[in-house]
Amino acid sequence: MPTINENFLKLEKNYLFINIAKKVNAFTAAHPDADIIRMGIGDVTQPIAKCVVEAMKKGADEMGVKETFKGYEDSGTGYDFLKEAVAGYYKSFGVDIPADDIRINDGAKSDCGNIVDIFGNDNVVLITDPAYPVYVDTNLMSGRTVIYADSNEENSFAAMPDENVKCDLIYLCSPNNPTGSVYTKDQLKVWIDYAKKNNAVIIYDSAYEAFITEENVPRSIFAVEGAKECAIEMCSLSKTAGFTGMRCGYTVIPHELTVKASDGSEVSVSQIWGRREGSKFNGVSYPVQCAAAAVFSEEGMKQTRANIEYYQQNARVIAAALDEIGIKYTGGKNSPYIWLKCPNDMGSWEFFDLLLEKANVVGTPGAGFGKNGEGWFRLTAFGDKDRTVEAMERIKKLLK
Ligand code: PLP
User: Fold this and answer.
1) Best residue among 239, 243, 284 to mutate for probing ligand 1, ranked by most atoms within 8 Å of CB
2) What is the C-alpha separation between 209 and 217, in angstroms, rounded?
3) What CATH number did the domain enclosing 331 receive?
C-alpha cells in the first residue's frame, strides 16, 4: 500500500491564490453586476514585445523544416545562444557571469522549488518572513526545519541576519515579493559575510530585478563581492518581459560554489545540480528560447522596457493615492508591488473583505505570506493603466 508524503499535510490546505479566487468567485456570484478590479495576483497584463513574438514565430517555423528541426537539446540546460545572451545582459549592469554558469529553465518558480532536491534534508533553512510561498512550502514538503528572519515595519521589511542564529540555507528575495522592499549593496554584503561564516548557501531570487531604479540597489547578488562562493541566483523573464504564459527563466550557479560532503570532500553544487537536471529535466522549448534571446537584443530591451515603465507608472499612481490618504507603505519604487499597512489596525483578511465589498477591488492579504504579513496588504502595479487609476479613486473615496 502506498503511503503519502505526510509533510504535505503540514502545509496550508490551499495555495494562497486559490483561497482568494474562492472568495472573489463567491462575491461575483452574489453580485453579478459588480465591476471588480483585480490588483491581487502578480501577473502581467501587457502583451509581449513584437520583436520577441517574431523571434518565437521564426523558431517555430524552423521546427517545420528538416534542415533546421530540433529535437531534444543536447544539454537540457539551454542553447548557447540564449546563455550567451543572458551573460551579455548581466554584463550590461556590470556583472561578469560565464555562460557556462547559466542554466535555462521554464521559470523561476520551478527552480526555486526544485533546488531543494540537492541539499540534505537535515539542513536548517532560514527564510525571511513574509515570503513568496514557494520557499517555505517546498522545504516543508521535504521535511526540513524552517526558521524565519522577521521582515517588519521596524526594519522596513528587509530582515537582516542574527549572528546568534545558525542555518545552512538562506532564501533572500530582492526586490521582494510581497513587500516591494530591497536590499542595498551594503546589506547584501552583511548577508554574504553571515552565510560564509555559517558555511551556508544563499538562494537569491531576483525575479523583479528589472524594476530596480535606485543606484545602490544591486540587480544581482553577484554584483556584491564574495557572492560567487556562497550564492545561487534565480531570475526569470516572467516579469522582465511578460513571459508568465511563455515560461522561461534562468538560474546562475557559479562554478566557484562548493559544499562539503560528509566525507570531507568539496562537492561542486553546479555539478550536482547538473546531475539532477540530467535525470529530471529535458529543457525549454526551442521557439521559447528563441523568443527569450530576442528579449536581450537591443530592440527587445527597448520594447520590454516600455512595458516595465508602464507598470512603474501604475506603481506611482498607487503610491500617490496612498500618500494622499496618509497610508503607510513600502515598495513601488524598485518594485511592481506596493505593500500597505491596513488602516485602523484591521487584519489583512478583514481589509481584503472591506475592499472587495465596498470598492470592488481585489488585493492580496499580507497574512497569506507569513506571520509578519498580518495587518499588511499587497497591491500590484501589473494592471491596466486606467483600471489602476479607477481602483485608487475608489480606495481613496472609501478610506478618506
Ligand atoms: N519569484 C518570485 C519572487 C515571484 O514573485 C515569482 C512569481 O510571481 C516567481 C519567482 C516565479 O516566476 P516564474 O513565472 O518565472 O515561475
Assistant:
1) 239
2) 9
3) 3.90.1150.10
Whether residue 291 is found in the same domain as residue 305: no
Cα 377 from Cα 359, distance rounded (Å) = 15
Q: What is the pLDDT of residues 275-332, one digit of tens each?
A: 999 999 999 999 999 999 999 999 999 999 999 999 999 999 999 999 999 999 999 9
How many folded domains does the chain comprise? 2
Q: Which of 16, 103, 109 to mutate to test the pocket of ligand 1 (most atoms within 8 A of CB)?
A: 109
User: Does residue 2 belong to any structural domain of this protein?
Assistant: no
- pLDDT tens, position by position, 175-224: 999 999 999 999 999 999 999 999 999 999 999 999 999 999 999 999 99
The answer to whether 62 and 286 are in contact (CB under 8 A) is: yes
What domain range includes position 351? Answer: 7-47+300-399
Residue 246, SS3 per DSSP: coil
| pTM as predicted | 0.96
Q: Identify whether residues 282 and 318 lie together within a single domain.
A: no
pLDDT at 400: 85
Tell me how far apart the alpha carbons of residues 142 and 122 are, in angstroms, rounded to a whole number: 10
**Are residues 253 and 309 both part of a single domain?**
no
